[in-house]
């Protein structure tokens, strides 16, 4: 729900590519465990907005964030 609100607001002024771990209409499915998958999804993007999954296991959200940052760097996101 949080990501949807952010994407809806940003889409008023920007082109938004919506990514998800699950397949759904209007979303691009990515494997958040696979940095290359994320980098392909970020190709051509000028920014990435990340909302952490609800997962309270130690280190899980941090690992997601680290992969997002690395993949954005590989994709040349500014």
Could you give a short description of this structure?
The protein is mostly helical and 78 residues long. Helices cover 41% and strands 5% of the residues. The protein has a two-stranded parallel sheet with strand order 1-2.
Structural features, described:
- With 78 residues, the protein is mainly α.
- Helix content is 41%, strand content 5%.
- The chain has 3 helices and 2 strands, in the order H-E-E-H-H.
- Strands 1-2 form a two-stranded parallel sheet.
Task: Give the arrangement of secondary structure elements.
Elements lengths: L1 H9 L8 E2 L7 E2 L5 H8 L17 H15 L4
Parallel strand pairs: 1-2
Give the tally of β-strands. 2
Uncertain residue segments: none
What shape does the CA trace take? globular
What's the end-to-end separation, in Å? 26 Å
* Strand content bin: 5-15%
Question: Residue share in helices?
Answer: 40-55%
Output mean pLDDT.
Answer: 93
Strand order of the largest sheet: 1-2
Largest sheet data: 2 strands, parallel
Listing every helix as H and every strand as E from the N terminus to the C terminus, the arrangement reads HEEHH
Estimated radius of gyration: 12 Å
Number of helices: 3
Keywords:
mainly alpha, 78 residues
